[in-house]
């Protein structure tokens, strides 16, 4: 059963208040205030001087158990929200592997699930490892992206993107952070640019809570768990208000949703789940054996959830 | 489509994988997609290129050149599937950017594919991604019960920026797709092998080494990354079109599958991605009779 061996994060040095970020995006004062007061956003982490290779390299270098075990890494997956991240033939993933001494690993980007991509990458990595003849083989999942274009800076009325990055070492089996279930619901009817299509935006916003709850409950059911047995919810960091509403809807205590990174980092694409996992374990919020739920959605749209056992 | 469930406690060995390569399809598309005229393409490409100090290709942008991965892949879906045979997994494979570079095409494709499969894309591995897709399909068959998988590689010929150095680019817009099924018939995947960091001078040696385990009567298909490589001693080979660096290997496989003279022979496919120096090999058994 797929297990997370270790998770590490890299937060870029600049923590900029959302006001100048919003001004650069051309948001009105009212829109910026809504982000702060209603959505619970405060600061956005970015690295204006670094590129994607720097970001991915730093995340992997923060992963202490990787050092000395590079030879065990058989697969490297970049869980990426945007289908394209650099002008061809630039290849930040492989440039990062060169710096990390991981060029022997098979490495590719997993994409088109947008910000739910890290859950997909965990599933793909787990299955590749389970099918691999070497029981000691590991997979390295990297997540984190640059806020290089408008669609990578803002989800209208919903979120501001940040450049938090994470790395996760995965094994085919292990004692802790074992994957118990994975559910994904793909909704191609939400394909399109939300920023240009108010009707699409409205439909997506209206459907979002119901679809998010449905996929989380599908993952719970498959794992044989219920909301009562879930110690912690690791969300994607779009904002605080949407998760508070979902908590009201399902009767789940909002203080058990790890929302620390929403005001402090920004929505870091597919890295959110791993960032929040790191926060949860660093804060000691999970005890051995606890079941927890990770959930994310991605524009396009994908809704995904995963139950794990710490 | 909702995919559920943990990995089963046991995993089927490769020899027990139910999936067989049953069909393949390749096509080119002339002309250009209307999406290449969308002003969003310029805005996105400019933002993408700026941090890397790369210039836009104004001719390609003004000429609205390029094709859509959605259109290219959809034709492959129509060619290889029918509603009575639902697909469980769809993997889209690409290396160069789409004319709608921000779109999650794989999700849209799942909607037009029988079975509304779990779908996603892999990229950033060049020619190697075609082999990663094979491994992924095999893994989902052996650990997730996938009964039918559709792998689609796409490439379109026009970049809208000027690459910072020479790089492999297709000379036409193309797609190539493989259908794997568990209903009987087709070819079982017998094995895969790979070597990384292979320099130009090592290519012939490594290719020969990788091919030592192949059955003697196997037909070896050399992908576009192995154009000019010396065929391992005495082995019959066919070479893919070099102008299709990212779909050519599967197109060559499709041609071999369609060739009645190859039906009773094992097939092998090898390719090299010069950017990463990786050589991959996959080989299939001779075709099993359809029940």
TrEMBL record, chain A:
Q: Which Pfam families match?
A: ACP_syn_III (PF08545), ACP_syn_III_C (PF08541)
An individual GO BP term: fatty acid biosynthetic process
Task: Enumerate the spans annotated as Beta-ketoacyl-[acyl-carrier-protein] synthase III N-terminal domain.
Answer: 113-186
Write the record's keywords in alphabetical order, separated by commas.
Acyltransferase, Cytoplasm, Transferase
- For the Beta-ketoacyl-[acyl-carrier-protein] synthase III C-terminal domain, which residue ranges apply? 220-309
Superkingdom as given in the UniProt entry:
Bacteria
One function term, GO molecular function aspect: 3-oxoacyl-[acyl-carrier-protein] synthase activity
Question: Membrane-spanning regions, if any?
Answer: none
Annotated coiled-coil positions are none
Q: Which InterPro entries match?
A: ACP_syn_III_C (IPR013747), ACP_syn_III_N (IPR013751), Thiolase-like (IPR016039)
Q: What is this protein called?
A: 3-oxoacyl-ACP synthase
Species this protein is from: Kitasatospora phosalacinea
From TrEMBL, chain B:
Q: Disordered: where is this region? A: 223-246
Q: Which GO terms describe its molecular function?
A: acyltransferase activity, transferring groups other than amino-acyl groups
Q: Where is the composition biased (Low complexity)?
A: 223-232
Can you name this protein?
A: Uncharacterized protein
Protein species of origin: Kitasatospora phosalacinea
